[in-house]
Design goal:
Layout lengths: L1 H14 L3 H32 L8 E3 L1 H12 L7 E7 L6 E3 L1 H20 L5 E9 L3 E8 L6 H4 L19 H11 L3 E7 L3 E9 L12
Parallel strand pairs: 2-4
Antiparallel strand pairs: 1-3, 4-5, 5-7, 6-7
Helix pairs in contact: 1-2, 3-4, 4-6
Length: about 220
């Protein structure tokens, strides 16, 4: 961190016109800053690698149970007046997944939705919908916050990228969540409209065949 700060200070001096005094130390500081960034990238890769479940970690679960668990964890800390609604397809079959890691995914998405609605006046809403298709189950987490501009959506899942104010986000929540979804054979999509809110859709494959000893959590 100190090397990054030094590089920033030297760059500011160059921008301010003190080129001769700043350039002497700028190259070495930038080299160190680049090394620090590479190490941070390695840390992020290691963190997301730890999120990948093995088959032994997975059990047969009702996806709505992990969503409910995530809501119970997040709801007390949501901005005042935030209403969380649920709309679950009653015919959802179980899926094979790591329940703790899916809770982590939905906690991240719900907390992000809470941050999104914190700055609006009036009704604050977070809607959670669970539905299914032929071979997948989808959980949508929708808020009525400001929405996400199209140009930022491709970067949302980059490690350390955040749209939150300095000091309020690590930029790792969505990166880890996407890695967990991928490890389960699924993905996360971003939708919504600027000025009308954002929607994060977690799509996971259905478990297609019974296995000996299965029991639904």
């Amino acid at each position: 961190a100190a090397s990054l700060e030094r590089a920033v200070r030297l760059a500011d001096r160059v921008r301010g016109g003190d080129r001769d005094g700043a350039l002497d130390g700028l190259d070495s500081s930038l080299d160190t800053a680049i090394l620090c960034c590479q190490r941070l990238q390695g840390i992020a890769r290691n963190m997301t690698a730890c999120a990948r479940p093995t088959r032994d970690d997975r059990t047969l679960i009702a996806v709505t149970s992990v969503v409910d668990e995530a809501i119970a964890l997040v709801e007390p800390g949501l901005p005042p007046g935030t209403h969380v609604s649920r709309d679950y397809d009653p015919g959802l079959p179980p899926i094979r997944a790591n329940p703790g890691q899916l809770v982590q995914v939905f906690v991240n998405l719900l907390m992000n939705a809470g941050h999104a609605v914190a700055g609006i006046d009036g009704d604050r809403r977070i809607e959670v919908e669970a539905s299914m298709g032929d071979d997948w189950v989808c959980v949508d987490v929708r808020d009525n916050g400001p929405g996400i501009p199209q140009e930022l959506r491709d970067r949302l899942f980059e490690p350390f990228f955040t749209t939150k104010p300095d000091g309020t986000g690590t930029g790792l929540g969505l990166a880890v969540s996407l890695d967990i979804a991928h490890a389960h054979g699924g993905h996360i999509a971003v939708g919504g409209e600027v000025g009308r809110g954002a929607t994060f859709s977690v799509v996971l494959p259905l478990r297609l065949h019974d296995e000996p000893g299965d029991g639904v959590r």
